[in-house]
Amino acid sequence: MRSGMSGKFNEENGAEQALPMLRYLRALVTGLAVVMGIGVLAIVAILWLRLGAGAPLPDLPAQITLPEGARPEAVTFARDWVVVVTDTGEVLLYDRTGKLKDRVKP
Which domain holds residue 24? Predict the structure, then answer.
């Protein structure tokens, strides 16, 4: 059987041993929170940098020549066609050989 005194001594001894472990655990949790916060900030920064810049247009094939003064705003490559939307909103439809097939003005 345990005596009342030895039980009290063991509880105090256990509490004294647990205190450094709790401090260590608190430091680990704080460190984890800091690392997670830095990680979230890094992900937000990467997304902001990548999505903030406009996407570059693909290069037009060499056989396609745009009308004088027209600048491409959007380019779509289909199976048999290349569609170019100019800065004035004009839609130019080319076949794969580069021949202008249709022109739609706004």
Answer: 1-54
